[in-house]
Amino acid sequence: MVTKARIVQVLGRIGVKGVSKVRAKVIEGPDKDKVLLRNVIGPVNIDDIILLKETAMDASSRFQRKG
Predict the structure, then answer these.
(1) Contact of 36 with 26, CB cutoff 8 Å
(2) Backbone phi and psi for residue 61, each to the nearest 5 degrees, phi listed first
(3) What residues are paired with 24 via a beta bridge?
(4) Which CATH architecture is the domain 3-54 placed in?
(5) What are the boundaries of each domain within the chain?
(6) What are the helix (H) ranges across the chain?
(7) Is residue 58 scored above 60 in pLDDT?
(8) pTM for the whole thing?
């Protein structure tokens, strides 16, 4: 099942392959209003709608700051 989410904040780009880390808010389905951190490929802006295959957390901790 595909779930729609709206990009709330673009946190930054990761690497050179066009991957961006974004904060997205689910706008439909059983997890409505849940805010997720996701890695998204391609150009994105705030208020863009993305389609999520699942609403589990995606962005791994290896991209977070240490300390």
Answers:
(1) yes
(2) -75, -10
(3) 7, 36
(4) Beta Barrel (2.40)
(5) 3-54
(6) none
(7) no
(8) 0.77
